[in-house]
Amino acid sequence: MPELPEVAAVAAYVDGRAAGFPIRRVDVASLAVLKTADPPYTALAGRVVESVGRIGKYLVIRTVPGPDSTNVAAEPEPVINLVIHLSRAGWLRWSEQLSQTPPRPGGKGPIAVRVHCGLPGEGFDVTEAGTQKRLAVWVVRDVGEVDRIASLGPDVLAMSRDEFGTILAGTSGRIKNVLTDQRTMAGIGNAYSDEILHDARLSPFASAKSLTDAQVDSLYTTMRSVLADAIGRLEGQEVARLKSEKRTGLKVHARTGLPCPVCGDTIREVSFSDRSFQYCPTCQTGGKVLADRRMSRLLK
């Protein structure tokens, strides 16, 4: 799942190629991904991309009226935002030779939305792999109209140490769940929470409200440094390379069975019904191997 560093890198990449240029056309292959109907997605045609940024893990393409806008309204909408949440298996593919043939509606291919923008012939496809379709797209005047954005917690990179500590002290959840709950703090997902907790030498099952001041200090500093390092490594990369570049920087996530790069212990995994996380027993749990919920059920 794309997290804050990848979404930030995608936003910067698209902004550098689309900002200042009009959206020539938007093709929708899967109407199911559209979560809004007013304004219609066709209203984006002819509008100019003002900027591309992110809110949490949401990609936000802000558009303003263009000289060739196809909007027939006497007073064009001052701002229309195209908001994209890539969810677990979504991605954005930029092309300098984007196909001019609209993707077939209802087709079995991965393309959900195609946006013709940037220099002539350029643009991007929004794709989703797998059978679980969770990709979501909104066309809104105000990003606050997206209920998922309205319910987001503060951005993890915008929080002060005191705000971070207050959030942790006010919840009884496990620290792994707190870091990944977008309503509590926005931007971190499964992969970077594994990396942050490993670097901070904390068990994923540690109670957030029970952490000492020293542990909160360490976790806050580590969280920012892990994300900053990832953002730095992804900066300037081609969108097509972001996934592989992300994997090269991971120490524990998705490395089950491999040696920990810090202590050499074997990276372990805890699996649930549809997800899993990884950790190092020596670095994080005092040598204790956490129960694998999936394996526990199989042994009953």
TrEMBL record:
The keyword Membrane does not apply. Residues 251-285 form the FPG-type domain. Residues 2-107 form the Formamidopyrimidine-DNA glycosylase catalytic domain. Its cofactor is Zn(2+). It catalyses: 2'-deoxyribonucleotide-(2'-deoxyribose 5'-phosphate)-2'-deoxyribonucleotide-DNA = a 3'-end 2'-deoxyribonucleotide-(2,3-dehydro-2,3-deoxyribose 5'-phosphate)-DNA + a 5'-end 5'-phospho-2'-deoxyribonucleoside-DNA + H(+); Hydrolysis of DNA containing ring-opened 7-methylguanine residues, releasing 2,6-diamino-4-hydroxy-5-(N-methyl)formamidopyrimidine. It comes from Gordonia hankookensis. Belongs to the FPG family. InterPro entries: DNA_glyclase_Znf_dom_DNA_BS, FPG_cat, FPG_N, H2TH_FPG, Ribosomal_uS13-like_H2TH, Znf_DNA_glyclase/AP_lyase, Znf_FPG/IleRS. Keywords: DNA damage, DNA repair, DNA-binding, Glycosidase, Hydrolase, Lyase, Metal-binding, Multifunctional enzyme, Zinc, Zinc-finger. Gene3D superfamilies: 1.10.8.50, MutM-like, N-terminal. This is Fpg/Nei family DNA glycosylase.
